[in-house]
């Protein structure tokens, strides 16, 4: 069975801290891994990773894929209260629904002032 | 900025009633999806749609569900006879090119079945 596992499921830190969110996967014919941020409703896209070892960066957020370990991490440095959200990892693979995605349960990140 | 729009944002219905959720995908996109998220649980794939037919569907997408693209712009999800366990947030998503880029999600339609 294809699966995507995220850890931790929830995390509470103080503003200014750095956090690392984890995602591991076991899927058939991996194509890409995507990170989304879900605040109130719709997931909004953060990164898409297809190649191992190449870091993608956007401001204080960065992510990297390790195909050997079948995992990815999402780093957020100098966290702000606006980073509070559920961070979703999703994997595109064959059997994921004609290029649809299999999602993990998400990491609920809470940034305290 | 182009976006996926969904209506209604929230619908309350009685068990056994039919519900239609509507989506307008991004205009030049070709691949369309429905996902659902039961409160507190993960986002789950329901169905994908391309070239006016279902490409793939999950185990959740049983005979009570159907999708169609009636007029070339709207993409609808119909639930024929709703059950309590159908209560969830339903997300529509669209994709421009296969294997490239990310899915764009709508804001979701919250369905509450009483």
Description:
The complex is a heterodimer of chains A (about 110) and B (about 110). By secondary structure, chain A is mostly beta strands. Chain A is built from no helices and eleven strands. Chain A has strands spanning about 5, 10-15, 20-25, 30-40, 45-50, 55-60, 60-65, 70-75, 85-95, 100-105, 105-110. In chain A, the strands form two sheets. In chain A, strands 2, 4, 5, 9, 10 and 11 form a six-stranded mixed beta sheet that branches. In chain A, strands 1-3-8-7-6 form a five-stranded antiparallel beta sheet, with no helix packed on it. In chain A, a hairpin with a 2-residue loop joins strand 6 and strand 7 (about 60-65). In chain A, about 35% of the residues are buried. The mean pLDDT of chain A is about 90. Chain B has a single domain, classed as Immunoglobulin-like. Chain B contains no helices and eleven strands. Chain B has strands at about 5, 10-15, 20-25, 30-35, 45-50, 55, 65-70, 75-80, 90-95, 105, 110-114. In chain B, the strands form two sheets. In chain B, strands 2, 4, 5, 6, 9, 10 and 11 form a seven-stranded mixed beta sheet that branches. Chain B has a four-stranded antiparallel beta sheet with strand order 1-3-8-7, with no helix packed on it. The interface of A and B includes residues 42, 44 and 101 of A.
């Amino acid at each position: 069975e294809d699966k995507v596992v995220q850890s931790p499921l929830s995390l509470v830190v103080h503003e200014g801290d750095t956090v690392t969110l984890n995602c591991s996967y076991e899927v058939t014919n991996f194509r890409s891994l995507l990170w989304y941020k879900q605040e109130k409703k719709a997931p909004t896209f953060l990164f898409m990773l297809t190649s191992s070892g190449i870091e993608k960066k956007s401001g204080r957020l960065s992510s990297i894929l390790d195909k050997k370990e079948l995992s990815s991490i999402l780093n957020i440095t100098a966290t702000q209260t606006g980073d509070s959200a559920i961070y979703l990892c999703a994997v595109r693979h064959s059997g994921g629904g004609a290029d649809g995605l299999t999602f993990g349960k998400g990491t609920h990140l809470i940034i305290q002032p | 900025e182009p976006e996926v729009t969904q209506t209604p944002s929230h619908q309350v219905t009685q068990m056994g009633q039919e519900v239609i959720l509507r989506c307008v995908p991004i205009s030049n996109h070709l691949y369309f999806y429905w996902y659902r998220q039961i409160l507190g649980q993960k986002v789950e794939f329901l169905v994908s749609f391309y070239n006016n037919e279902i490409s793939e569907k999950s185990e959740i997408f049983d005979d009570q569900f159907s999708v169609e693209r009636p007029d070339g712009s709207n993409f609808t999800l119909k639930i024929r006879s709703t059950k309590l366990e159908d209560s969830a947030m339903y997300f529509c998503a669209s994709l421009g090119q296969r294997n490239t880029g990310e899915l764009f999600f709508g804001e979701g339609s919250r369905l509450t079945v009483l």
